[in-house]
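Module 6 notes. Inverse folding takes a fixed backbone as the condition and produces residue identities as the prediction. Think of it as a translation problem where the source language is geometry and the target language is the twenty amino acids. Below is one complete input and output pair. Work through it position by position during the lab.
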């Protein structure tokens, strides 16, 4: 490890000498980046040790094996990768009461990992917790986590491809959690990924401005999911080329996907639904749908807006109730200030 840092020190010294020129040219990407090797006999024994040493633009390669470890990654433009030809597992250890992997730097790529058994006391432990924009996740397996990926970033993108979410969801006390939770991102795209054996909750919850689900396989195998498999709150939704398999208990769902909020576009194209008696999309987003080329069970529509008027009425009443509570609270505060001033 000493040699590793000595090797880094000489280029860093040269970069410091060049700093005025870098600033003048407006450089935004690292001029020097390293590959950090993690594993037995490597400069870094654990992912967390590499995370503490990583700089912007580095690549972290984690050798095959099982690591009872977690890591918080602060640097930007990182690539964190396991062994593509074998199995690299992080398991059973959560950092900061949140996740096996916490991303605190911008523009991170994570690939070729297995993230298993993420557990925290508040039952919201994630395989990956992203707190910065622009995350790419490729060929990663999430197994028996309370949450798979939880993205709380404001803006930016989350791109997931070739991932598997197996046995994720409800915590031991039955609190529903989810495979993927995307907050107020600019875009969420999930493609070529598999969702199965969920223990409750939804597969995907998205509040992104644009949500794209392309070429995935979703199933409610296990019988533990009572609501929609996907919930999308507003924005645009593209549902294309997905295969969905529903079990016999699916009749209670409003649909495979529930679209609510201030939706602006809905495209449902080339999907296949097997089993169940619910539509692919229950459209409560008050937006016209483009639906074509979908393969559905006999008599089942690809998109239905049944119940949308009632839903929008309830949403309007809820907003009015919240506004009334806010106004009443402000009035009570103003009255208290006035009384204190008089006394």
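Target side of the pair, the amino acids:
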């Amino acid at each position: 490890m000493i040699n590793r840092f000595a090797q880094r020190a000489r280029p860093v010294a040269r970069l410091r000498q060049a700093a005025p020129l870098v600033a003048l040219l407006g450089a935004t990407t690292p001029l020097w980046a390293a590959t950090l090797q993690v594993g037995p006999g490597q400069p870094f024994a654990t992912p967390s040790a590499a995370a503490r040493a990583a700089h912007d633009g580095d690549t972290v390669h984690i050798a095959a094996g099982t690591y009872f470890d977690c890591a918080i990654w602060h640097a930007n433009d990182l690539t964190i990768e396991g062994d593509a030809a074998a199995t690299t597992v992080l398991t059973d250890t959560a950092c900061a009461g949140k996740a096996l992997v916490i991303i605190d730097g911008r523009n991170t790529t994570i690939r070729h990992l297995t993230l298993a058994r993420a557990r925290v006391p508040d039952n919201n432990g994630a395989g990956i917790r992203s707190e910065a924009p622009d995350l790419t996740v490729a060929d990663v397996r999430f197994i028996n986590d309370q949450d798979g990926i939880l993205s709380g970033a404001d803006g930016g993108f989350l791109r997931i491809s070739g991932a598997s979410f197996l046995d994720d969801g409800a915590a031991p006390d039955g609190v529903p959690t989810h495979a993927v939770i995307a907050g107020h991102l600019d875009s969420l795209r999930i493609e070529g990924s598999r969702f199965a054996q969920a223990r409750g909750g939804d597969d995907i919850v998205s509040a992104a401005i644009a949500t794209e689900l392309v070429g995935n396989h979703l199933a409610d195998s296990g019988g533990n999911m009572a609501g929609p498999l996907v919930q999308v709150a507003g924005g645009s939704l593209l549902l294309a080329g997905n295969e969905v398999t529903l079990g016999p208990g699916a009749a209670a769902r409003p649909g495979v996907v529930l679209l609510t909020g201030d939706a602006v576009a809905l495209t449902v194209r080339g999907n296949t639904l097997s089993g169940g008696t619910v539509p692919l999309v229950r459209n409560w987003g008050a937006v016209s749908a483009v639906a074509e080329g979908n393969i559905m069970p006999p008599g089942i529509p690809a998109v239905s807006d049944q119940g949308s008027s009632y839903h929008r009425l309830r949403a309007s009443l809820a907003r009015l109730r919240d506004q009334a509570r806010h106004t009443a609270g402000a009035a009570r505060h103003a009255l208290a200030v006035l009384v204190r001033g008089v006394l």
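Reference fact for the lab report: Residues 28 and 281 are 42 Å apart (CA to CA).
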